[in-house]
């Protein structure tokens, strides 16, 4: 096995785990709506997840760990994806927000700050900001 094969398999695994975390949020209410399905389809394409892996992840999404990205910007990108999924699902309940906070901690956000970060993320996504604005606003929310 070459080094590039190791990199590719690790990259693929991280994308699958990230996708599974988003599926976990989508499946929290027990169903995937048409809007969520469209989002998952686009996300799977963007993360280079093939159809057979897509189906396996949907079936067994809880077996994938939440692997925190190393860079803060990558954490914010993943949080952005998750917050968009919660927003698309029109989730307003405490249970879903608690789940998103748990995933936020799993992504590497500090437990003491995750509630504030998730609340800000959901507000930004509800306001329709793009990824660049999202990252900027989260990075500068304490200044």
Radius of gyration: 15 Å
Instruction: Specify the number of helices.
Output: 7
Q: How many structurally independent domains? A: 1
From N to C, what is the helix and strand string?
A: HHHHHHH
Number of strands: 0
Average predicted confidence as pLDDT:
82
Describe the structure.
With 143 residues, the protein is an all-alpha fold. The protein has one domain (3-139). Helices cover 69% and strands 0% of the residues. It has helices spanning 3-26, 34-46, 51-59, 72-88, 94-106, 114-126, 131-139. Helix 1 packs antiparallel against helix 2, helix 4 (72-88) runs antiparallel to helix 5 (94-106) and helix 4 (72-88) crosses helix 6. The longest helix is centred in the N-terminal third of the chain and has 24 residues, at 3-26. It is globular and about 45 Å long. Residues 1-7 have low confidence and may be disordered.
Entry summary:
By secondary structure, the chain is mainly alpha-helical. The protein is built from 7 helices and no strands. It has one domain (3-139).
Protein topology:
Blueprint: H1 3-26, H2 34-46, H3 51-59, H4 72-88, H5 94-106, H6 114-126, H7 131-139
Helix pairs in contact: 1-2, 1-3, 1-4, 4-5, 4-6, 4-7
Please name the defining characteristics of this protein.
globular, 69% helix, 143 residues, mainly alpha
């Amino acid at each position: 096995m070459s080094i590039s094969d190791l990199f590719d398999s690790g990259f693929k695994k991280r994308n699958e785990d990230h996708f599974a975390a988003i599926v976990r949020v989508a499946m929290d209410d027990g169903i995937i709506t048409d809007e969520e399905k469209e989002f998952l389809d686009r996300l799977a394409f963007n993360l280079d997840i093939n159809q057979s892996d897509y189906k396996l992840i949907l079936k067994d999404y809880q077996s994938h760990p939440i692997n925190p990205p190393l860079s803060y910007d990558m954490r914010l990108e993943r949080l952005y994806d998750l917050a968009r999924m919660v927003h698309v699902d029109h989730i307003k309940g405490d249970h879903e927000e608690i789940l998103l906070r748990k995933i936020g901690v799993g992504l590497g956000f500090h437990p003491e700050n995750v509630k504030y970060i998730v609340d800000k993320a959901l507000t930004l996504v509800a306001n329709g900001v793009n990824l660049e604005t999202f990252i900027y606003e989260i990075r500068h929310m304490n200044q």
